[in-house]
Amino acid sequence: MKEAGATKQRPLLEVNALKKHFPLQGGLLGRTTGYVYAVDGVTFTVDRGETLSIVGESGCGKSTVGKAILRLTEPTGGEVFLDGRRIDNIPLSQFRPLRRRMQMVFQDPFSSLSPCMRVRDILAEPIVNFGLAGSKSELDDRIALLMDRVRLPRDAISRRPHEFSGGQRQRLCIARALAPGADLIICDEAVSALDVSVKAQIINLMSELQDELGLALLFISHDLAIVEHLTHRVAVMYLGKVVEIANRRTLFAASKHPYTRALLSAVPVPDPAAKRERVILRGEVPSPINPPSGCRFHTRCPYVFERCRAEEPQLRSMGDGHMAACHLEEAPEPACAGSAQT
Ligand code: SF4
User: 281, 305, 311: which to mutate for ligand 1, most atoms within 8 A of CB?
Assistant: First the structure.
């Protein structure tokens, strides 16, 4: 994995205060009775050739962030820029051609590939739709190159998805994402359903493709262990908000937010002699319909104190791009700090 962002230019993707609130309808008249605050003011950037991972428990809104960027669900608020151009508020007719540059790979490769289509047609579809091949031979060359890129045999193009293993199907999904020449790929739990050894192969493939093509990756996962070997930076989400963001080394070695530390404590350490204290979080993630006041993590935080219940902590810079949203970082000696559950 190459280090990203050596020369500073405007990021490929900029997400500013992104919101997605799903209305709840009720009663005979179908009036809006409330909202699911799935994504509630999320800000981050992704550079060319960089991997940013968004991690958090299920229900934290991380997948909705990916879908809102691609407008698979329309954002409620905030701004999204691709290569400096605002894309969240332009008409869909202008947005669709830009989808060529932003593609998504989903968790379940089987349900995201049409079982009736042969591989050749699956890969040809985006190339033809975006008018990227001038002739049949050019189309064939592009398809052959895609098969090479994802390390699948060229002669497999006449097969259908059910004739492949789970890992091979995910390679097909990656090839389809690359087909229109995407420079940003959003991977939504793309390896979660795979066996451990296949997971590693797909992660290695993504890394190699990133180096070869300069791809930007937004890697959405519930599992910090998965992203450790792939990512340049990590954004940790809790209940619709980013609570910490840092480069990989800093996050794994010196995280600041109690929620990040709890997630990290569940990551297996390769050295059996090295002990990591396991932090067990109490309870479930609260409902995004009625998020807790103040710090949204306060109902589960082992260090909660008075101020946490009343005042929402803002993301604050810890230096070197590291940001965390926790009152402990502003008041190192809180009056009522509890002790961590281990
Ligand atoms: Fe815990 Fe308070 Fe920090 Fe929230 S602000 S993470 S409740 S210590």
Answer: 305
CB 145 within 8 Å of CB 168: no
CA 219 – ligand 1 centroid, Å: 26
Q: Of all atoms in ligand 1, which is nearest to the CA of residue 334?
A: 8
Per-residue pLDDT tens over the stretch 210-229: 999 999 999 999 988 888 88
Q: Report the nearest atom of ligand 1 relative to the CA of 337.
A: 8
**Biggest distance spanned by C-alpha atoms of the chain:** 72
> Is 60 exceeded by the pLDDT of residue 108?
yes
Task: Indicate the domain borders of the chain.
Answer: 277-342
Q: What pTM, to 2 d.p., does this model score?
A: 0.90
Q: What are phi and psi of 226, to 5 degrees?
A: -65, -40
Instruction: Give start and end residues of each alpha helix (H) in 150-302.
Output: 166-178, 196-213, 224-227, 248-254, 258-265
Q: Is 120 within 8 Å of 156 (Cβ atoms)? A: no
Q: Is 102 buried (19+), middle (13-18) or exposed (0-12) by CB count in 10 A?
A: buried
The enclosing H or E element of 67 equals helix 62-69
Cβ neighbours for 44, distance < 8 A, ≥ 6 positions apart: 15, 52, 54, 235, 242, 245
- Vertex 67: Cα angle to 91 and 70 (nearest 5): 40
CB-defined site of ligand 1, < 6 Å:
257-258, 295, 297-298, 301, 303-304, 308, 313, 326-328
- CA of 299 from ligand 1 middle (Å) equals 9
What pLDDT sits at residue 331?
53
Question: Which strand ranges, in their side-by-side order, compose the sheet holding 85-86?
Answer: 31-46, 13-26, 77-82, 85-86
Mean pLDDT, all residues of the chain: 90
Q: Which ligand 1 atom minimizes the distance to the CA of 298?
A: 7
